[in-house]
Each structure stands twice: as structure tokens, then as C-alpha cells.
User: Which sequence fits this backbone?
């Protein structure tokens, strides 16, 4: 009898938000940007010499690394690029978390962290956020194998000040502290400069949200050159050519168009602030989101009911059934028009609910 099943690596995978494809849908469930990427991306696509696709890409993605380094005012050897920040984070977990002690991250946060910990067999401990979903810094003053903090946090939208992060870093000088800044461009509160002060801090960012390139898969990390070199050694040990030729060209073009980026970012922030006012009017409460989504709970109508009824109308939001957050909805910020429709439909659902 075959026994290969005894040696399978079995794991419950991370489940991303659904990607329905309906012509009339309003998709507010995966924190994508409602606006297209920079028009310079179109120029790259139109001009791209397809014959070059027969050649392997530059293994070091030099052009993209340089563009990110210039934009962030760091050196090239302080930048690591990957296939979305999920790839960057997975490699960081594999590279830095090899202690027998548990790594620490909040109980309510990006639900991929515990999946990677399981996959790479890293012990972990989930530290409860307080009742307002704020981080309690002193809970991280204990022996551990590393720390991961999403800031602003997902799915709560809440942003801790740089002082709080620095406090946690100061108490964790012997391990790597990863700050996942997937939503930082909607907050203006980057901890980027902490990498100049602390050699154990890794800042991870993505092109998927603020730069409207979720479909291209580009993410990056910044940290001291030794951290970056260690991550590259791990990465080149299983994939020599992670970034495609097109993602390098498109990523470089997108990050260089700072003016368009500023405009789109401000637009999303303005729509978010309008949506907050409307949600308050409808009886929702939520923390002060610094992201491109709002994590809200209604005073009377259960989240599951609102989720199901919106879904029937082809309006997709995200609902997590985990403890502490099962009565919340995570609503990504769409265009003004999409949010207007979302508010109107939600208002109907609430008024019809007995
Ligand atoms: C969206 C997200 C990511 C992953 O983004 P990529 O598309 O893989 O770059 C990472 N962390 C958090 C907290 C996110 O919300």
C-alpha cells in the first residue's frame, strides 16, 4: 500500500476575498484601488518590445530596485523586491524566523501571518489588541522569535503612531521586527526612517493598493543591507527570476509618476472621509481608518445580514467569521459613485430589517 500521504505537508491555506466577474458588480471586498494605474503604465505596455520576452528577466530587477530606492531615498542595497508583498513577507518569515521561541503578532491582523507560520513551522503567539483594536506595546516586551505588525492594521484600519512602533522595536533589539505597511500611503505615517536607526527593522510595502497594480504583483521591503542580502539568498535558493520583465518596467514607470499617485491617493482619502460620515449617519461605528477600507459594525443589524443582502445586489464587501470581529464588515473604498450606491443600498437594508 502506498504511504506517500503520510509525508504530505498539509495546511489550511489563506483564503483571499472572492473575485467575482459580473458586469454590474460593485467590488469592495479586496481593498483594490478603484482607479487605473498611472497612464505611464499604458505607455510601457504599448511600447513593449515583445521579442524581449523570449529572454529571462534581470534576476536582480535592478531597474525596479533603483526606482524604489530613489523614491524612498534609500540605497539600492536596502531594497528587496518580490511578487507582491505576500511573496516578500513569506520570504522574510522564512529568512528571519528560525528561532524556537514564538513570533508575536496581534490576534486581529492580516490572516496570512498565521498561515505562513504554520507553513514554515514557526511557533507563534497572537497578542490580543485592546477593546478598541489598539496595540498594547508592553505586551511585546517578552522573549520571542520575532515581531510582525501591520500598520495601519488590517482588517481594522487602525494606525499606531511611529512612537508606539519604536517602543516595540526598542524592546525587541535581538529579533527582526517586520512592519507591514500595505496601506501606508493612505495614512502618511510611515516608519520608513526607523530603518536608518535600527538594523533589525524591515519595512514591507506593496504596489497593489495605493498604486492600483494588484494584478501585476509587485511588493518590496526596505531594511539594512544585511537583512536584504539574507532575503535575497533565500529567494535565489528557490527562484532565480521572480519578477517578470513587464513587472519591472511597469513598476518603475508607476513609482516615477509621483503626481498621478498623489492625486489618486487624495481622491481615495476624500471618498473614505465622505463614507465615514455616511456610515455614522446610518448607525455604524468604526475605528478611525487610515487605509482604503473601513471596518464597521452596525448598532442593530448583524454584519452577516448586511453582507448577504448586499451580495444579492452584487455589492461585494468582506466579512470574517473569526471571534471578536464576526459582527464587522470590511468595506473597501471605491469610486464616489460606487460608494453612493453602496450607501443607498445599505440604508435600504437597514430600514427594512426588523
Ligand atoms: C493586501 C495586503 C498584503 C499583500 O499585498 P500584495 O498584493 O501581495 O502585495 C500584505 N499585507 C497586508 C496587511 C495586506 O492587506
Assistant:
Amino acid at each position: 500500500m502506498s504511504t506517500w500521504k503520510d509525508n504530505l505537508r498539509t495546511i489550511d491555506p489563506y483564503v483571499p476575498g472572492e473575485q467575482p466577474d459580473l458586469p454590474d458588480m460593485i467590488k469592495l471586498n479586496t481593498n483594490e484601488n478603484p482607479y487605473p494605474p498611472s497612464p505611464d503604465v499604458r505607455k510601457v505596455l504599448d511600447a513593449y518590445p515583445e521579442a524581449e520576452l523570449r529572454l529571462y528577466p534581470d534576476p536582480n530587477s535592478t531597474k525596479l530596485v533603483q526606482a524604489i530606492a530613489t523614491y524612498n531615498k534609500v540605497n539600492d542595497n536596502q531594497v528587496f523586491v518580490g511578487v507582491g508583498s505576500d511573496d516578500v513577507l513569506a520570504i522574510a518569515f522564512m529568512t528571519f524566523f528560525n528561532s524556537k521561541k514564538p513570533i508575536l503578532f496581534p490576534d486581529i491582523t492580516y490572516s496570512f501571518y498565521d498561515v505562513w507560520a504554520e507553513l514554515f513551522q514557526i511557533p507563534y503567539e497572537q497578542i490580543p489588541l485592546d477593546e478598541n483594536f489598539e496595540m498594547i506595546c508592553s505586551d511585546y516586551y517578552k522573549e520571542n522569535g520575532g515581531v510582525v505588525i501591520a500598520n495601519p492594521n488590517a482588517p481594522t484600519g487602525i494606525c499606531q503612531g511611529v512612537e508606539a512602533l519604536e517602543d516595540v522595536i526598542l524592546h525587541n533589539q535581538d529579533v527582526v521586527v517586520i512592519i507591514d505597511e500595505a496601506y501606508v500611503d493612505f495614512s502618511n505615517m510611515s516608519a520608513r526612517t526607523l530603518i536608518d536607526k535600527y538594523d533589525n527593522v524591515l519595512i514591507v510595502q506593496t504596489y497593489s493598493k495605493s498604486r492600483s497594480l494588484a494584478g501585476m504583483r509587485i511588493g518590496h521591503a526596505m531594511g539594512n543591507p544585511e537583512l536584504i542580502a539574507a532575503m535575497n539568498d533565500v529567494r535565489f535558493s528557490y527562484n532565480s527570476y521572480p519578477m517578470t520583465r513587464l513587472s519591472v518596467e511597469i513598476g518603475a514607470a508607476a513609482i516615477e509618476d509621483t503626481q498621478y499617485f498623489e492625486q489618486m491617493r487624495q481622491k481615495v482619502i476624500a471618498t473614505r472621509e465622505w463614507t465615514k460620515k455616511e456610515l455614522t449617519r446610518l448607525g455604524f461605528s468604526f475605528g478611525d481608518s487610515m487605509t482604503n477600507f473601513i471596518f464597521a459594525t452596525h448598532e442593530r443589524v448583524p454584519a452577516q445580514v448586511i453582507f448577504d443582502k448586499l451580495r444579492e445586489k452584487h455589492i461585494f464587501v468582506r466579512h470574517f467569521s473569526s471571534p471578536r470581529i464576526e459582527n464587522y464588515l470590511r468595506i473597501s473604498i471605491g469610486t464616489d459613485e460606487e460608494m453612493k450606491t453602496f450607501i443607498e443600498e445599505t440604508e435600504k437594508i437597514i430600514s427594512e430589517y426588523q
